[in-house]
Amino acid sequence: MEKGEEDRKDVQFFYGDVRDSGAVGEAIYHSDGVIHLAGVLGTQETVKNSLSSIETNILGSLNIFESCAHHNKKGVYIVVGNYWMNNSYSITKTTAERFALMYNKKMGTKIAVVRGLNAYGARQKDKPVRKITPNFILPALKNEKILDIWNKPNFKKVREDVLKGNFKLDICKKCVGLKS
């Protein structure tokens, strides 16, 4: 959380862990809706530690989906674009996506599945694995040359996803029934 964000009056912050079903249930009970962004990030980084991905990305998501069903709350689940990859991150996030769709069909939840791309957070690094977002941001901050992918044919899909695939918070808020 950025400095000063805890002072916002339009957002309620709740500190907890998605793996703690009681904490998740309490937070969701007191909310208008849920925008689920929690997850253990990393593709290569999680291969040797699959359990942490399973606990957070699958079981944590199930805690959220269960609480949405129990408390009749709408939700948004942000899913990955690299669902075809065979690594702990992609497998667990895609599994949770399928559970969200199952909850909608079998339990009547209203969980919108939104394919967001290039998650970036304080602990994401540019090395040893070259992640796209930090490899754009860090050179820009250092006034260095940024990777030129825009005119390379093999990056056409990445280019399209970056330009049109960056979702807006307004869309997520509408999905859970909040005003933009």
Describe this protein's structure.
With 180 residues, this protein is mainly alpha-helical. The chain has one domain: Rossmann fold. The chain is built from six helices and three strands. The chain has helices at 21-29, 50-71, 88-107, 132-141, 156-164, 169-175; strands spanning 33-36, 74-79, 111-115. β2 (74-79), α3 (88-107) and β3 (111-115) form a beta-alpha-beta unit. α1 runs parallel beside α2 and α2 packs parallel to α3 (88-107). The two termini are 21 Å apart. Mean pLDDT is 77; it is low at 164-168.
Record field, number of beta strands: 3
% residues in beta strands: 5-15%
Q: Tell me the number of structural domains.
A: 1
Radius of gyration: 17 Å
For the sheet with most strands, the description reads:
3 strands, parallel
Principal-axes geometry comes out as globular
Assign the structural class, choosing from mainly alpha, mainly beta, alpha/beta, alpha+beta, or little secondary structure: mainly alpha
According to CATH, the fold-level topology is Rossmann fold
Number of helices: 6
Helix content percent band: 40-55%
End-to-end separation: 21 Å
Order of SSEs, N→C? Answer: HEHEHEHHH
The CATH superfamily is known as: NAD(P)-binding Rossmann-like Domain
Low-confidence stretches: 164-168
Walk across the major sheet and give the strand order: 1-2-3
Q: CATH class, please?
A: Alpha Beta
Integer average pLDDT: 77
Examine the secondary-structure arrangement and name the CATH architecture.
Answer: 3-Layer(aba) Sandwich
